[in-house]
Amino acid sequence: MAINLKYTTPGLDEKDAVRVVELLQDRLYAANDLHLTLKHVHWNVVGPHFIAVHEMLDPQVEEVRGFADDLAERIATLGGSPVGTPAAIVENRSWDEYSIGRATTQEHLGALDVVYQGVITSYREAIKELGELDPVTEDMFIGQTDKLELFHWFIRAHLEDKSGALATDGASSEEQAAKAAG
């Protein structure tokens, strides 16, 4: 996507601002996708721990929706135009569609472990780059990563045995993780 800024925030040159907007837009796609995925799981989870997982996910959905709004507003602040349409998410994402439908709590939690790993890893990669470009956006990404890591811990707590081993250890896809956790 070509980014054409008419202006940017004082103290940030246009070249750096364009790159920051690209990083923000990538995270906007991810945040929109993640909050929809979490809501999908919320609606499709079944089993004996249904209510605990169902209720655990709603605050995560709301927080990640808020991330999307913050990311979009930062893009606009830097002189960009945030893109939040469903088609743009699908066209520009670097990850696969969430593939688990109606399934047990453990299967969904296993799949979400892999989802959170991907989202957090991409945030951390962007944080490294932002340290040189824009400490304000870097701070935003650090704050969002902190919350994502907390939510990931909530998911993983359901997947651990008493020794701390994860049922999903070694799984590289949602399907593998769901099967291992189920």
Automatic annotation (TrEMBL):
Secretion signal, residue range per the UniProt entry: none
Short name of one Pfam family: Ferritin
Keywords annotated in UniProt: DNA-binding
Residues covered by the Ferritin/DPS domain: 22-161
GO MF annotation terms: DNA binding; ferric iron binding; oxidoreductase activity, acting on metal ions
Residues passing through the membrane, by range: none
InterPro entries named among the record's database cross-references: DPS_DNA-bd, DPS_DNA-bd_CS, Ferritin-like, Ferritin-like_SF, Ferritin_DPS_dom
NCBIfam families: PRK09448.1
Family: Belongs to the Dps family.
Name of the featured protein: Starvation-inducible DNA-binding protein
Origin species: Nocardioides marinus
